Amino acid sequence: MRQSQLFTKTRRDAPKDEVTRNAELLIRAGFVHKEMAGVYSYLPLGLKVLTKIENIVREEMNKIGGQEIRMATLHPSEPWKQTGAWDSVDVLFKIQSRTEKEYALGQSEEEIVTPIAREYVQSYKDLPVAIYQIAQKYRDELRAKSGIMRGREFGMKDMYSFHASEEDFARYYHIVKEAYLNIYRRCGLNARATEASGGAFSKKISYEFMVLTNTGEDSVVYCNACDYCVNSEVAKEKAGDACPACGKGDLKSAKAVEAGNVFDLGQRYPKVFHFTYKAEDGSDNYPYMGCYGIGTTRLLGTIVETNYDDKGIIWPESVAPFKIHLILLGGPGDEVTAEAERLYKGLSNRGVEVLYDDREGKSAGEKFQDADLIGLPLRAVISKDTVQKGKVEIKKRASKSAELISPEDFLNIFHD
Description:
Blueprint lengths: L20 H8 L3 E5 L2 E4 L1 H20 L3 E2 L5 E3 H7 L1 H4 L4 E4 L5 E4 L4 H11 L8 E10 L14 E11 L2 H21 L4 E7 L7 E8 L5 E6 L5 E3 L19 E16 L1 H5 L4 E2 L5 E2 L2 E7 L1 H11 L1 E2 L2 E2 L10 E6 L5 H15 L4 E4 L6 H11 L3 E6 H6 L2 E5 L6 E3 L1 H6 L4
């Protein structure tokens, strides 16, 4: 894409009402636009990143047998009243229509997905089944102050599974756990599965996926020698104690961002909605239910919170809106422009995602500042000096040094 045609522009100053790096950098770089506290619109660059995150999540859910659907966002009040959540869930947005009917904006989907599954699961032969969606959610948060990481409107992948036994749910949980860890790895994050309280969703222990970062709202105790990690709220040990899991490492404390969770819902919702299936012995049984969530917009914010420097964002290649920032330092009609256009065409023909800074009237300093702020993985500069040398100057965003390579070697980095 030609940057001259990108309708968004970068901003030099940080928004005064934002206190988190994710919101500050995403707004300054033109990825998102703030509508109000906890509500953001996603602009071309931001939507590209969000779509890549969603596709990674989608691929990993499909690999473990998840079936994607799209559930309603506007919910009738009846199922929420049936579960008691209409009065007990304080973050639920409630709406009254002109006909005086009551509705809710979906903050989770247990009240919707359980009756759906009941329609199609009649026998033990239909189990297990896992259903998921990637869609918008709405929560009346009192503390919507963490940029896109704690929103009143946000994107989320929520999956629900139904099983003939609690043992089968436990089996599937471990499969989902590995899929979640794959998602975080593919997004350039190091996450740990931790035990935590189930909160409003379940009285049982739930599992959260925590990304260690100094900007996190949560606190965990973890072991560097193994995968042991537990939320400080439920930890029986403290920093400095020996790891209770492996006995080899000492526990450390850290701030972390919750990047996903799973809840064991047991038979609670099937019982409320009279959802039974025929077991192999002919008896009517309630299925066991699991809930698995990843906030996709929150994950985007988490990536920024763990990948930036004093100049801007540093996107992992897997989710960057473009792979290369091709920067032209020349004037219209000269040989420098001709070479930049040739390389832009060559990259595009290879299917390489490239943002081509062909803007006129911008100094080299301005273009470099914008490139660092936007944070694409690789910067390639075409200037009078590089053309005279028959080279292209390339620099990785996270690197302090650049190198000169031939245009052919540059194009050959990306195979057809």
